[in-house]
Amino acid sequence: MKLGIIDISVIFGYLMLTVVIGLVLRKRAQKDKSAYLLGGNRLPWYMLGLSNASGMFDISGTMWLVTITFVYGLKSVWIPWLWPVFNQIFLMVFLSVWVRRSNVTTGAEWIGTRFGKGRDAAMSHAVVVVFALITCLGYLAYGFIGLGKFVQIFIPWSVVQPYIPFHVPVEYVPHIYGIIFTFFAVFYSVLGGMSGIVWADVLQYLIMTVSAIVIAIIAMSALGNSTLNVPDGWMNPFFGWKLHMDWSHIIAEVNEKIASDGYSLFSIFFSMMLFKGVLVSLAGPAPNYDLQKILSTKSPKEAAMMSGFVSVVLMPVRYLMIAGFAVLALLYYNKLNLVVAGHIDFEQILPSAINEFVPVGFTGLLLAGLLAAFMSTFAGTLNAAQAYIVNDIYLKYLNPKASRRQINVTTYTTGVLVVIVSIFFGVFATDVNSILQWIVSALYGSYVASNVLKWYWWRFNGHGFFWGMVAGMVPALVFPYIFTETLDLYYFPLILIISVAGSIIGTYMAQPTDEETLKSFYKSVRPWGFWKPVHELVMADDPGFRKNKNFYRDMFNVVLGIIAQTGLVLAPIYLVLKKNLALGISLAIVAVIAIIMKKTWWDKLVEEEARMK
Fold first, then answer.
1. β-pair type (339-340, 343-344)
2. At 190, is the pLDDT very low, low, confident or very high (cuts 50, 70, 90)?
3. b/e string for 119-154 if b means 16 or more Cβ within 10 A?
């Protein structure tokens, strides 16, 4: 264990600050439901953007990204499209604006604006709540297991065990650590609500930025003028039909990692990932912390600005750290302690590299930042879960006339219960990658069909939404036990086909959504897509209504935005690797796209916002 008094003091100081934030913002959060769940829609867009970026800068994700960068080099920049990371571009260009125009508190509440108040709308509402809670619990378990694996490097169980009155098997040590640090996240998120989460996230982002710069400098200094011993193709982001990356004569165990990941046929993997990613992005934000941040903004324009700001502040900082740790791990691989329970675990690269290479003092700062990253993701996801339980179950069905005190008590109670259940799920998670694959491939596969159709097809109704979601969620929960040797991404098309069939059949089993609901939704949200019958009804009432004809412009901006976002990922990696020409080209591409999108996106956004007022 390398932690010194300074490191421990820094970590303790950060944890105490989170407690103070929760206590200070407790009264503000208790004013009403909106103040607790959305910060009263008074939080600045840039703070929400920093908070959202901070929430994505989590321990589990960072551990995973360092691992894939170590293994796949610059080709790893595509693998996060599994999430997909470029959904932030779709949100920036048009979907955040559409979502924010609804003026609701949660994604489930949004259902009423699209499908009305009938029985099918109630069914849709219920299935969204179920999906949201399953997703939140999955993310909480994902963060939980990542945190535990991270902490055990710095606090070996052999040091702690003598003070524990019972024996803990080695495989459950990460879960013990996860439980301990979870309680701090619970404290400030449950007490401070959205405002507490945002302020704690901004603090965490500042810590992580300083840490990332320090790590990048250490890595660049260690690299000097030497060349990394990596396979052919590691330095090239482009790829062919197969990966063709052979580690046999460098670190033979890495080949086993590539085989277990299932990425060898990289073109097929990339095509599937892009196909799924575009559909997931078109479906809009899933009902988690990202959606809650969008709903917390002051206006539709600020929602778009917040979503765009996330990529700008997240990618360069995060990848400075990721590239730094990957370079250090490659230079000094033999010094890393990656053996866990007798097997090499490449997910231990990040904590082991910190333990080995980061100087005293900065280790505490970095650990505080990464612990904060866990708590940020955990707190944001917990807030989303609380929002669905309180707003969409308790207030909608159990106690619609609840007093402010009853709402506060229910919110606190549900927060604690959700944490307990997520810890239970986390205990059964084997590693970060397995639960990540299930969330982004199988579970999100069940979400796609219904949530694409709800935006772009007028005839789609609540009945179709319900059966599309159910038809997708059931195989998403069952298939991992059937296709045990198959990467989750590869059975995504099967889940999609089943879900589309459920959506279409369910839609035509019931009447269309009532005209008034459709007209109200179409007039306020103004989506493009297949809305001709509704458009004609709206025009009959309001001949001056202007149809949204921005499909091609939006898609053009999405393509440009994804290229720029990828440039923001590559630039810090090239900086750390000292590839100055490639760095310059990446930054030049980003700059040119920024100039173009100033005219094709930003100016149009401002004009449309002014026209809508």
1. antiparallel
2. low
3. ebbbbbbbbbbebbbbbbbbbbbbbbbbbbbbbbbb
